[in-house]
Amino acid sequence: MISSVSPPTAGLAEVQLRCAELSPALEFFVGELGFRIETIYPADDPQVACLSGHGLRLRLAPGGDPGTLRMSGEARTLIAPNGTRIEFVDLDPAVVIPPLKSESVITRQSENPETGVGRAGMLYRDLIPSRLGGRFIASHISIPQGGSVSDWVHFHKIRFQMLVCRRGWARLVYEDQGPAFLFKAGDCVLQPPRIRHRVLESSDGFEVVEIGCPALHETLADHDMELPTSLLAPERDFGGQRFLRHVAAETLWTPHGATGFERRETSMSRATDGLADARVIRPAQARGFRAPAHSGEFYFGFLLEGSVVLDMNGRHRLGPADAFVIPADAAWGLSEASDDLALLEVILPADAARV
Fold this sequence. Notes:
The chain is built from two helices and 31 strands.
């Protein structure tokens, strides 16, 4: 577990780069790259210089490694007189969405119970091992022992990311969305692109399902922002999306078409401007239904509670915490649903599957 607490004697840090001849290196780093000299010695025959600039502090001195510096700028590469490689890159590139590799997926907790330790000490269980070509990731995340979470203010470079609480609770806080709130079983949160947020604490046995696109995305810390912010802007646009906090206990169940099931909508479609939808369905008058094939890129199901048989290329009995992905144009349905079934459905785009 990595703590975000600064060491008690935190001060300046610098990177040392090998430099046998200081004069030409200074002409390059100061004259061409725009660094400035902070320290240089000895005066009669300079051998060591400390420079600052571009958010870095460098020490040029004999010994060590020439190293590589990555700097923002038009793509090119330079080699400094001391051998340091300077790579000019886009330090904030656009999110890359890999091509979809569609396939059916069934992931059972009994067959795939392994978890790995992820960010802030949370345990992650992979629900889509293939990642559908890197386009989507779904994780069953847990915190067995509650209390304060060693999280920090951060954001994600993503196209889509949502959370649904399965067990317990956590206290969360989001940029421009008011004070911290309790995220409880059944609740859903949409985290739009780049919104700053933080997990403050959780109960024992906290469990959440997280779905994101693309599968591989950056998490970046924001050490300058304090949450909660003073501004309250619930309709603020974050990359074409708006923050969504869906509270299950405040939402009515409505008929799920003519299936004999009912559903609890989340307003995800509105918050994402039609990019995605999410809902929970459960049996009412019927214990199953045949579903129309969808035409979208992603149809994901996760059993929050109960059991059901998934009819898709055979019969697959599923239980709590099992997950599945249904590819486009596939025939499928549900049968033998238990009375306590609660099935989370996540769909992209939002209108790809309607009953």
